[in-house]
């Protein structure tokens, strides 16, 4: 929230903390008429009272306020009863400053002070030298501050705009003084920006200029939703007030004239009052790391502003553009279900009607009632009610400006671009004539990405978004005409209305467009992207252009001399991203025709992920019949993704004219399409065989759909059998339902003892309001600079020369940095085998060669791209197969052997060999790697704020690079926006470079990697190739196993040895194998070094085990569940590394999972379904996991803690673990609370730092709660022992009494704690010792449905039973189980990294790399924490939970494999088959061999150069 200073003072902005938005009974009248509804009189005419000024709520008597408002020409609403309205317009804008108030004193170039935060709200800002001014508003030295209007009724200086536009000669070089004022509102506060740069996004402006850091940068391409804000605009022509969720990372600042922006800070705060949207996501445990939370909050908020009582389907649609990597989505949906028509809480009165309070009811699962079993993780009765009349109103001044200002042209000049916003069609046409090369921008969803990622520069940008003719929608006799700048959301709303009101035969095309729009990007993109932009971008994989082609839509093109109408046909797209428009022409409108009575129309889209994804192949098909017959009169088949443009299958269509719609036509069509729709085997995008097969499969779906429709019209055609009917079904997602079950705390447990209770994450509320501070949210230092890295474009090469001359000439550049600038050692990495900055040679694409330091991020990044490097290329090794051929391995090669392998194979009735490849995985933490380094100015001291899991490692690597002792470097971590192992060892890649730059320039330096840089540089999960030979008896009992693992380690060892070792420790998963040998090789390749990732090699090791157990079952014709159960470990069994299993709960987990999932009934239902359906198949799988808990490097199994008790009784706690969303700090507070016997509210953890707990092990290996919890316990017990005499002396005293007594008695109230795991250590040489402290066990049962024609699949249900001992916090533990499961679901079914044969990563952002979205959750999800399973090896009988559940998602993979087996059986193919991971749509479709796949044989390997290779 913003408050202006006194009207007489200088024009400055001061952040003052969030507003008190909801003060007592004050109410706001808002429109409930939905999007585009008429504006309520109250919202239009009123202004606010009772809002904050500074930190105080102004409380005035209503009559005084009323008089004051009337005096200033504000209309005041008079109702039957006096009602007073709340707005975010601050009273400070309206009330004059008290007489004699001096304006705040500030040095001329100093920056405003940062927001005043409560002590526990945020980390302390960096300690600054006396002359540095922290500011969340400045960029560099407080340049170009936006102006806050002092008198809202002064006319804004917009004169001369028309002239400056009309006389724009040499617009590109005109001085910026010719720019207009940009007026917009942020959270109710008026902003007047006189230097708006066309290339500045709203996100950059919010974060860097206004200091509003609640809105996050996740990807910069509109693909993750972390930057979602709400834009509100009043349209004077329609008298409508529209609210839209948009991506701030793509929204151009210049497009915001007369717009109200609402960010997460503007709707509620922890200090004031949370909005119900913020409160419910926090209290329902829907925020873990919290980085995505503000974006999700704003998506929901925007939905409620338009529709206060949405349906669950509308909620799910609102989240299509939002991603979360932590939670698994379930708790978010569950919390927000309470706002919906379906989910409003009845307080338990409607128990029989599926009330939210019956979550976890026992009725469904047929198990007897268990008294101490709980099923509710939150109580809806605790939620504040949602009252839509209390919403923040649209700023009244903005309403008046929007109404009163005649439409006018705008012009904004930036550093490299000029933004021209014409106010009339005539002016737009003249500008386009004058600037034919100018880019036309409406939503900026394409141009924004071109400028950011493709380094495009557009000197002139035309923004015609508000020209009435281009927004018009006209209904004509034969269709609907849409103006070219109509947004996709608006077009969808108009078409939905038409479908509801017109006869069905007229709306075939409309329904096809609506079907494509359902899966078109996310709602934030559809809200701003224009239909004309979609056409003119001319993307070959456009979702809509095939529909427009097949429907024969007409386009009206125009220039200043006149207009012409062209039909969209195969001639419209003239080449890759080219159309037949002349440079001076614009697209005015598109006419979409009604369909005819005998016309049938369908559209299809196949993409890796259903929601918000770029298509692999799109298609639209239209057939018109001679009336009353099945004779084809007209046929149009249009495809995207099959050429450099959208294409029509002309030859096939002409062949089928005059033919009857039957089996012969189908065969002819498929043969013809297979010939006509061909692709070069090296085609960009790869998946060539799959794409060609899809052209046939999609036509077959259309063929069946048309048969059904013809029969409905009474035409005599063959009936579509019930077996084939499922191929015609259109996917409609079901709303997910879920059950969570955990053991309640024992009766009589003290209410203050929260161990075992589902306590909310301590930071959840702050995360939901945007107040939680992440590394890049730390306010800017006054003299801070920004760093951008220079990376290699070659996988293996010598550096011949580096030319920085162009970079040094660029604006804002301070210096360039290379290896010779490092004062200490250039060696870094876990094994010191990689360089901080490449010196003479690069060994991967993305190898950091140097860095550019400049005044802003934009300047630094542009300059880094201007550096020119010449290379001498060397032969790279990219794939595991290339490494095996070249014998390119790191040493040592690890082996574990147990039993007599030779004898085991002799004993076997059958021997089977197989192999499997498991793809890598990108961490995709929502917060990319970020470091802020600030030199302390003496003795080589430096302070670093880093997003890292390993503070000690960061400290030692930075100290080594700077050539100083570790005691001069302090590393601080408040929280991370996700880590998952990716910030364990690889975060030092960035930290060391930033520290070297800060040391060289003696100034604070910041760098946050962009998503594409982070994915390119930092590596991910190791791809694995597993080969196995397994011997087994006729019963299915395994007697011998020989398995070899090859991992793609990359260009340095990093943690690869430990990862291969853990794969070997999990090679048998949960199965007893008496004779076994496992070997582990890690391949040296020219890829960025792969690293730790949740599971750390365990999932890859177990995945290969499940492959051979499935092969055994299939070769014997037995059920896989039977073979798995037969081979499960039993209590007292010994592993291949000779560790005896005690406290084994695998059998209990297995039996409970089968019981809760209703496995037997499900199996019967799946078999029946598969007999009844040919083109969709269902599969079912039950998979166990046994995951060892401990660092396999013995020395890391230690932890420290530090606890201070202050004289007021409050406790400050710190420990060596870092918080990345897993709730570690929350659990540590719970532990301390129990040990000290005081409420959690008295205990605070501020951050993790190297100057409080030294030499901390990384927060990894799932062991952090065990290790740090025991250390915290140790510290607290020490303090308790010291307080014991005072408790004994004063038994009735309070905690505070005892603390004060001890203090006055000079007792040390500070203690450090320490813990090391006992009796642990293993030797590979002797195959003896204890590798793990204990094991976590779990079992999962999943059911899926696959579409055999497209390879798409649905996750129907999953039941998980997980042994977490006695849970410290069931809400956090269930969140970890679900989050790990969804991450595993991505690993095994969705996420695919594509590398070129030259080692270039091709998937570098959410546009091309797909993590699971909201729509990927199993429709039914049950998570049960095993009861009565205490673990004596960890704190309070708990167990680790971070990594073990991830592998349970393989149950979905093996359920898919089960379904594919059913499809193959339909074609007469049985027995084992290889299915590599992930089970992508491409792999599923290609494995389902049928009549269509036989028409498209794949090209022979070695005869072509593939677009991407399996690394």
Give an overview in words.
Helix 31 packs parallel to helix 32. The protein contains 41 helices and 54 strands. The radius of gyration is 32 Å and the shape is globular. The longest helix has 26 residues, at 1264-1289. With 1511 residues, the protein is an alpha+beta fold.
Total DSSP helices:
41
User: How would you classify the helix and strand content by structural class?
Assistant: alpha+beta
In this structure, how is the largest beta sheet organized? Answer: 8 strands, mixed
> What's the overall geometry?
globular
Q: How large a portion of the residues is in β-strands, by DSSP E?
A: 15-25%
Radius of gyration, CA atoms, in whole angstroms: 32 Å
Number of strands: 54
Residues in helices, as a percent range: 25-40%
Low-confidence stretches: 1-145, 148-177, 345-368
Alpha-carbon distance between the two ends: 50 Å
Neighbour order of strands in the largest sheet: 29-33-27-40-37-38-39-48
Mean pLDDT: 89
């Amino acid at each position: 929230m913003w408050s202006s200073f006194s009207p007489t003072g200088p024009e400055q902005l001061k952040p003052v903390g969030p507003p008190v938005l909801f003060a007592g009974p004050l109410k706001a009248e808002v429109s409930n008429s939905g999007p585009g509804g008429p504006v309520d009189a109250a919202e239009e005419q009123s202004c606010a009272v009772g809002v904050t000024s500074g930190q105080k709520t102004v409380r005035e008597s209503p009559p005084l306020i009323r008089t004051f408002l009337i005096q200033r020409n504000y209309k005041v609403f008079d109702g039957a009863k006096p009602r007073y309205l709340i707005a975010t317009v601050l009273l400070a804008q309206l009330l004059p400053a008290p007489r004699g108030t001096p304006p705040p004193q500030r040095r001329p170039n100093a920056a405003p002070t940062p927001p005043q935060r409560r002590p526990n709200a945020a980390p302390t800002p960096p300690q600054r030298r006396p002359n540095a001014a922290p500011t969340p508003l400045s960029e560099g030295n407080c340049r170009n501050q936006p102006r806050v209007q002092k008198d809202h009724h002064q006319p804004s200086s917009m004169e001369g705009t028309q002239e400056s536009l009309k006389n724009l000669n040499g617009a590109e070089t005109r001085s910026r003084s010719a720019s207009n004022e940009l007026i917009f509102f942020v959270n109710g506060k008026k902003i007047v920006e006189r230097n708006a740069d066309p290339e500045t996004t709203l996100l950059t402006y919010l974060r860097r200029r206004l200091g509003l850091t609640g809105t996050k940068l996740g990807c910069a391409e509109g693909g993750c939703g972390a930057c979602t804000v709400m834009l509100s605009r009043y349209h004077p022509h329609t008298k409508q007030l529209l609210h839209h969720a948009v991506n701030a990372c793509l929204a151009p600042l210049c497009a915001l004239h007369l717009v109200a922006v609402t960010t997460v800070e503007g709707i509620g705060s922890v200090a004031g009052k949370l909005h119900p949207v913020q409160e419910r996501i926090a209290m329902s445990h829907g925020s873990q790391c919290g980085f995505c939370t503000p974006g999700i909050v704003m998506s929901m908020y925007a939905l409620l502003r338009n529709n206060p009582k949405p349906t669950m389907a509308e909620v799910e649609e609102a989240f299509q553009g939002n991603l979360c990597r932590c939670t698994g989505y379930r708790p978010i949906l569950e919390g927000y279900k309470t706002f919906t028509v379906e989910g409003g809480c009845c307080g338990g009165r409607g128990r029989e009607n599926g009330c939210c309070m019956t979550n976890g009811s026992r009725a469904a699962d047929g198990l007897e009632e268990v008294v101490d079993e709980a099923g509710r993780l939150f109580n809806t009765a605790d939620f504040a009610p949602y009252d839509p009349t209390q919403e923040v109103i649209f700023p009244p001044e903005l309403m008046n400006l929007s109404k009163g200002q005649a439409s006018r042209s705008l012009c904004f000049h930036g550093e490299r671009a000029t933004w021209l916003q014409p106010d009339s069609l005539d002016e737009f046409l003249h500008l386009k004539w004058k600037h034919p090369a100018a880019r036309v921008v409406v939503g900026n969803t394409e141009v924004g990405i071109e400028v950011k990622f493709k380094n495009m520069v557009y000197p002139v940008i035309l923004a015609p978004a508000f020209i009435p003719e281009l927004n018009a929608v006209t209904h004509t006799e034969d269709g609907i005409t849409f103006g070219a700048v109509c947004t996709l959301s608006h077009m969808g709303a108009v078409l939905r209305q038409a479908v509801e009101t017109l006869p069905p035969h007229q709306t075939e095309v409309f329904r096809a467009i609506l079907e494509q729009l359902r899966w078109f990007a996310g709602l934030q993109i559809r809200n701003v992207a224009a239909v004309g932009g979609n056409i003119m971008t001319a993307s070959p994989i456009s979702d809509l252009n095939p529909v427009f082609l097949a429907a024969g839509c007409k386009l009206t093109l125009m220039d200043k001399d006149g207009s012409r109408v062209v039909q969209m046909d195969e001639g419209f797209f003239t080449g890759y991203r080219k159309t037949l428009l002349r440079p001076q022409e614009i697209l005015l409108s598109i006419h979409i025709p009604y369909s005819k009575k005998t016309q049938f129309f369908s559209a299809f889209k196949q993409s890796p992920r259903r929601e918000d994804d770029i298509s692999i192949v799109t298609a639209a098909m239209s057939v018109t019949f001679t009336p009353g017959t099945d004779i084809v009169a007209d046929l149009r088949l249009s495809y995207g993704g099959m050429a450099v443009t959208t294409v029509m299958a002309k030859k096939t269509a002409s062949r089928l004219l005059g033919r009857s719609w039957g089996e012969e036509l189908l065969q002819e069509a498929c043969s013809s399409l297979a010939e006509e729709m061909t692709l070069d085997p090296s085609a960009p995008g790869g998946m060539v065989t799959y794409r060609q097969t899809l052209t046939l499969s999609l036509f077959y779906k259309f063929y069946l759909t048309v048969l059904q429709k013809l029969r409905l019209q009474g035409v005599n055609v063959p009936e579509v059998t019930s077996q084939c009917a499922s191929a015609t079904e259109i996917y409609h997602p079901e709303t997910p339902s879920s059950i969570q079950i955990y053991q309640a705390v024992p009766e009589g447990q003290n209410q203050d003892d929260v161990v075992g209770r589902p306590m909310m994450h301590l930071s959840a509320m702050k995360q939901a309001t945007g107040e939680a501070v992440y590394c890049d949210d730390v306010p800017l230092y006054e003299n801070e600079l920004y760093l951008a890295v220079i990376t290699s474009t070659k996988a293996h090469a010598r550096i011949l020369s580096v030319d920085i001359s162009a970079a040094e000439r660029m604006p804002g550049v301070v210096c360039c940095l290379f290896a010779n600038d490092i004062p200490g050692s250039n060696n870094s990495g876990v094994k010191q085998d990689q360089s901080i900055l490449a010196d003479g040679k690069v060994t991967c694409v993305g190898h950091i060669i140097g860095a550019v330091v400049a005044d802003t991020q934009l300047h630094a990044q542009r300059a880094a791209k201007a550096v020119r490097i010449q290379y001498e290329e060397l032969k790279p090794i990219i794939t595991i197969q290339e490494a095996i051929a070249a014998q390119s391995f790191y040493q040592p090669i690890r082996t574990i052997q147990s039993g007599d392998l030779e004898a085991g194979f002799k004993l076997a009735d059958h021997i089977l060999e197989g192999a499997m490849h498991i793809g890598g995985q990108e961490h995709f933490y929502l917060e990319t790697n970020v470091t802020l380094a600030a030199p302390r100015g003496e003795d080589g001291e430096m302070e670093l704020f880093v997003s890292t899991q390993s503070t000690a490692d960061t400290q030692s690597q930075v100290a080594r690079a700077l050539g100083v002792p570790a005691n001069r470097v302090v590393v601080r971590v408040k929280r991370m926006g996700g880590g998952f192992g990716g910030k364990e060892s690889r975060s030092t890649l960035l930290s060391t470079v930033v520290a070297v730059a800060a040391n060289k320039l003696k100034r604070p330096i910041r760098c946050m990697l962009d998503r594409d840089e982070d994915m390119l540089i930092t590596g991910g999960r190791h791809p694995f190739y597993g080969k196995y030979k397994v011997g087994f008896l006729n019963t299915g009992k395994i007697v011998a196993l020989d398995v070899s693992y090859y991992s793609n380690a990359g260009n340095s060892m990093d943690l690869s040895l430990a990862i291969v070792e853990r794969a070997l420790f999990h090679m048998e998963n949960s199965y007893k194998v008496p004779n076994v040998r496992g070997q582990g090789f890690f391949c040296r390749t020219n890829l960025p070094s792969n690293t730790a990732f949740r599971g750390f090699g365990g999932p890859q090791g177990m995945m290969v085990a499940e492959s051979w157990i499935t092969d055994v079952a299939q070769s014997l014709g037995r059920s896989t569940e039977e073979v798995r159960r037969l081979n499960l470990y039993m209590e007292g069994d010994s592993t291949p590394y000779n560790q005896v299993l005690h406290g084994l709960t695998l059998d209990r987990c297995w039996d409970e999972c089968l019981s809760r999932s209703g496995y037997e009934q499900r199996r019967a239902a799946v078999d029946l379904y598969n007999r009844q359906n040919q083109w969709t198949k269902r599969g079912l799988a039950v998979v166990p996991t046994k995951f060892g808990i401990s660092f396999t490097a013995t020395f890391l199994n230690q932890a420290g803690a530090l606890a201070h008790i202050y004289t007021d009784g409050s406790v400050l706690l710190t420990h060596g673990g870092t918080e990345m969303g897993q709730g570690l700090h929350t659990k540590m507070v719970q532990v301390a609370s129990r040990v000290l016997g005081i409420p959690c509210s008295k205990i605070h953890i501020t951050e993790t730092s190297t100057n409080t707990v030294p030499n901390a092990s990384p927060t990894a290996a799932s062991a952090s709660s065990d290790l740090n919890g025991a250390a915290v316990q140790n510290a607290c017990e020490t303090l308790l022992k010291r307080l014991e005499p005072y408790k004994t002396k004063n038994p009735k005293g309070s905690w505070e009494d005892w603390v004060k007594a001890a203090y006055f008695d000079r007792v040390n109230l500070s203690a450090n704690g320490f813990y090391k795991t006992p009796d642990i250590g293993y030797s590979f040489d002797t195959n003896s010792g204890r590798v793990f402290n204990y094991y976590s066990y779990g079992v999962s049962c999943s059911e899926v449905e696959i579409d055999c024609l497209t390879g798409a699949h649905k996750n129907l249900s999953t039941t998980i039973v997980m042994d977490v001992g006695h849970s410290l916090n069931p809400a956090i533990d269930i969140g970890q189980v679900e989050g790990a499961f969804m991450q595993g679901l991505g690993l095994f079914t969705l996420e695919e990294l594509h590398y070129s044969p030259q080692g270039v990563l091709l998937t570098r952002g959410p546009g091309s790399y797909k993590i699971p979205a909201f729509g990927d959750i199993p429709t039914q999800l049950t998570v049960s924490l095993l009861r009565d399973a205490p673990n004596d090896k960890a704190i309070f009988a708990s167990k680790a939970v971070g990594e073990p559940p991830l592998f349970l998602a393989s149950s979905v993979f093996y359920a898919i494999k089960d379904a594919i087996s059913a499809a193959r059986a339909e074609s007469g193919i049985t027995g084992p088959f290889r299915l590599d991971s992930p089970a992508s749509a491409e792999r599923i479709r290609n494995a389902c061999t049928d009549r269509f796949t036989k028409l498209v044989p794949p090209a022979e390997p070695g005869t072509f150069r593939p677009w991407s290779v399996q690394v």
